[in-house]
Target: Phosphofructokinase domain-containing protein
Amino acid sequence: DYLMKSSGSPIGSSRARLTNAEHLKRIRVLRGKADPFDVAAAQLKVDKIDVLHVIGSSSSHAAAAELQARLAAQGYPLQIVGLPKTIENDMSPIGMTLGAQTAATAGAVFFENVVAEHNANPRMLIIHEIKGRAAGWLAARTAHAYRQRVPA
Model:
C-alpha cells in the first residue's frame, strides 16, 4: 500500500541531478558551497553502499561514473549496475530503452484525444509538441504509433 501512495521510491530516489547544485539547494538537499558529488559519495560511504543501481538516461549513468571515480580515488569500491531508461531512446547501442515505447504510445493516445476535440472545432490550430532533445526518435515513434491507431 505504501508503494502505491509514494512518489519516487521508499529508498528516496529522485530526479535531482548532482550536476545542478542550485536546484539541489532549492529543494534543500544541499547546503552552502558543498560539492554535490562529494556529499553523495560521503553518504554512500556512511551507509556502506557498495553497489549502486542506476536506472536512467546517459546523464544519470555519467553521474554514477563520476561518483564511482571519486570513491575509487578514496580507496572505496563502488560497483555500478546500470539500466538504460529514457523516453528519447537515444542510448546507443541499446535498441530500445525502457520507457521509450510507453511514451510514444501515450503521446499517440493524447494526440488522438486532441484530434477528437479538433473535430468539434475545425478552425482550431493544433501544435502537438513532443519531448525528445536532439534525437527526434520520440516524435517519429509517436507519429507512427498514432498512424497505427487511425483506421485506414
In short: Residues 40 and 67 are 8 Å apart (CA to CA). DSSP finds six helices and two strands in the chain.
